[in-house]
Structure formats: structure tokens, C-alpha cells
Amino acid sequence: MAVIWKYIFIPISILFLFSGCKEPKPYNYPNYEIIKPEKTCNPNRKNIQDLLDSYLGKPYVWAEEGPHAFDCSGLVYNIYGSMGMDVPRVAREQAKMGKHVPFKNLHYGDLIFFGSTNKRSKYINHVGIYLGEGWFAHASSKERKVTISHFDKEPVYTKRMKMCKRYLSEDERAKYMNCDVPLKQMGVTSSRYTTPWQPGMKLPKKAVPS
Fold it and tell me: Is residue 168 part of a domain?
């Protein structure tokens, strides 16, 4: 019996060895596979600021969540995920979580969700991270990079604003991860199995694929 198990065990071991050495899928635009970030820091506003500072100017690439390129919700997913907070990947799902906050009460790191200028529409298609005094950071498809905007300088964002949410309490002790409605579960992977956009690769001609 021991001899039989020996002949079964060896091929299985070889199979695991080769699967562990498997090359990740090459990058292909758009890469819809969600690469979950590793936790690198604790959840607090100082770390949100540090992560944002390191990402400013990085290119906008649809469906990317970093670390070299982002779309709007990918930036939020990366920053909060790097602090160990498991948030949804897309903006419309991110908007279902957290605590509703009036615009006048926003704190650094709160999220602002946008849609069309049609006031009746509740559809969410963009998200930014509030910085204070009317400034917010976002991965902009218009600017084609992670940038900072101001509501007074770009009033269209005021017209597009749909809601504001807070994931991290003011004193940073509580995490508002409650959901208004059920979330759509999305599978995640790692860079071990798929390749994110890398510096040196060509940027897509269109910010958002048709």
C-alpha cells in the first residue's frame, strides 16, 4: 500500500510544482481580472494621504487597480485595500457601503460618488476621495491620470454629485463597512496569475473602451 501511495503522491507533487511556477497571464486591455492589493499599512487618514501622494500623476487605465495605473474605483479599491479594508471594486458597489455624510460634513478620505448631471438618475459612474476645502483626488478619464480637482474650478462635478460616504470614522476607531443593499460579489486574483498594466506599456487610445 505504501508503494501505491508513493506513485500517487509523486505526480501530484510535480503537478503542484509546475502550477506554482506558471507564468501570469500577459496584460491585455482591458484587464478585468481584479488584483487584490496586499495590506501594507493600518487604516488611518495619514496613510490615505501617503498612498495618494505616491499615486498622483500615475496614468488612468480602465479596469486597473494599480500599482502603476488606475481607474477611479481602482484607486479607491487599492488605497483602502492596502489598509486592510475589504471594499468592493467598482464605484456603484462602493457607494452601497459606508455611512452617508452630508457634503458640508466631509472629512479627509471620505468618498464622493458621481453620475450624470440628470438629477433624477441615481446611476454611479465615478468616485473621488475628498481632501478638504473643496478639493478631491480621483483617477480622471478626462485628464488621463490620477489628479486633484476642485468643485469651484470644475462646477460640473457639483452637478454630477450623487452621494458622499465615509468608510473610516472621524477618530479612526470604527470602520463603516455596513451595506445599504446586497453587494455583487466579484472574484479577485493576484499578480501571480495575471499581469497589471506596467510602465513602458502603451497607454490605450481610449480612456474607456466602447
Answer: yes
pTM exceeds 0.85 for this model: yes
Question: What's the pLDDT at 210?
Answer: 82
Which of 126, 150, 164, 179 is catalytic? The answer is 126
Concerning whether 100 is annotated as a catalytic residue, the answer is no
* Burial bucket for residue 148 (CB in 10 Å: 0-12, 13-18, 19+): middle
Q: Which domain holds residue 46?
A: 25-189
Residue that is written with C-alpha cell 511556477 in the block: 21
Concerning whether 150 is annotated as a catalytic residue, the answer is no
Annotated active-site residue 138? The verdict is yes
- 42 part of a folded domain: yes
Dihedral sign, Cα of residue 31, residue 34, residue 35, residue 39: positive
Number of domains in the chain: 1
